[in-house]
Amino acid sequence: MDIKNKNLKAGNENGIIIAILAILLVLVLVIVGTVVLKDNAAVAKFDGGKVTKKEYQVYYEMFSSYLKSYGYDSNSIPEEILLKAAQDKMIVTDAKKAGVKLSKEDKKEVDEIFSNEEYINYFKENYDFSIDTLRQIYYNDYIIQAYIKKLATETEDAKIEEYIKNQYAEGETIDMNEYDTSHILFSFTKDDGTSMTDEEKANLKATAEGVLARAVAGEDFAALAKEYSDDDGTVEGDNPGQYKMYMDGNTVQEYSDAVKSMKPGEVKATLVETAYGYHIIKLNAVNENGRVKSETVREQYANTLFDNIVEDKHLDYDLEAFKKYVKSIDADAYSAQSATDTDTATPTDGQVINVDENGNVTTGE
User: What are 116-154's pLDDT values in tens digits?
Assistant: First the structure.
């Protein structure tokens, strides 16, 4: 027997097997690469970036059903969602240019969310998008919020003051002060959600007047608020009962009028009745020009800087190709009548779409 020939034959067979495996590997890489390329293909482009198909799919599956229930025209929903996705990517692009990065704390918070097996299983069972892409969108949202805070902090006071004044008619008196108040609310709404009868209100008033006497006498206001107030939004924290406000029309008139008549350190000697109930009010301080320093107002201003970002960065996409793609992930898309042919309500101008850390979708101004 020729051992050399047998080895040579075996060597040829091994070579053929290796060649076949190599070809199969190339085919697998081509297929996988094609899928990745398709997922990363742009559904829309803008100056400095793009929205990929896999990113858009996450936004679409997360938002579309909610927007339908909210009254958006079904045929406009795909493009409304595209604008949201594009705006987010644009803001993130600008944020990174400004040196904003995902903090270790924020990354840890997102990663903890995505380490929750129940949470992940929910998304896998109810959606068909990439969990990794969803995670990145969460990262992006934290970057956006950090960027907004950066802009709010760094903006000059003069620009914030101008922003506030532009909300008023010319010649209208503007109070720029911040009023640091505290209050104790005795609510007209009972624990079961029903309104009190007149007799119940009278008993409530007697209780409120007893607490008022203690507050006027100098008893610790925060402690009284912690014990008696029905305003859950103000009883927690380091200073229970604290409510900082502005004379901007966002606080009930009776409360605002009472505060205007008070001096710093004063507890209003009488109960103040509003639609919510009886209030015991203390004016802690008046902070001159405090509206300009308000974190909330400054962040509102920062958000307005993005109003025209979609136009400024020249969002571009092929509408027909876009519609075809949307139909590929939702066969029912574009199948409804136009809102002009139905009684379906449409959203008001300025509404934006938001998603919180629990995946809940909301709209806001």
Answer: 999 899 999 999 999 999 999 999 999 999 999 999 999
- Cα angle: 42, vertex 324, 319; to 5 degrees: 65
What pLDDT score does 2 carry? 46
CA distance 251 to 253: 6
pLDDT in tens, 234-279: 998 899 999 999 999 999 999 999 999 999 999 999 999 999 999 9
Query: Which domains are assigned to the chain?
Result: 42-157+298-364 (no CATH), 177-288 (3.10.50.40)
Q: What is the largest CA-CA distance in the chain?
A: 117
Place of tokens 């962040």: 299
Which residues have CB under 8 Å from 335's CB, separation 6+? 74
Beta bridge partners of 185: 279
Alpha carbons 121 and 185: distance in angstroms, whole number: 43
Question: 240, 225 in Cβ contact below 8 A?
Answer: yes
Enumerate residues 6+ apart whose C-beta is below 8 A from 249: none
Alpha helix positions (H), the chain: 3-40, 53-70, 77-97, 104-113, 117-126, 131-154, 157-165, 198-216, 221-228, 232-235, 253-260, 290-293, 295-304, 309-312, 319-329
What is the rounded CA–CA span in Å between residue 109 and residue 352? Answer: 24
Residue carrying the six token digits 């993130």:
92
| pTM metric for this prediction | 0.72
Q: pLDDT value at position 37?
A: 43
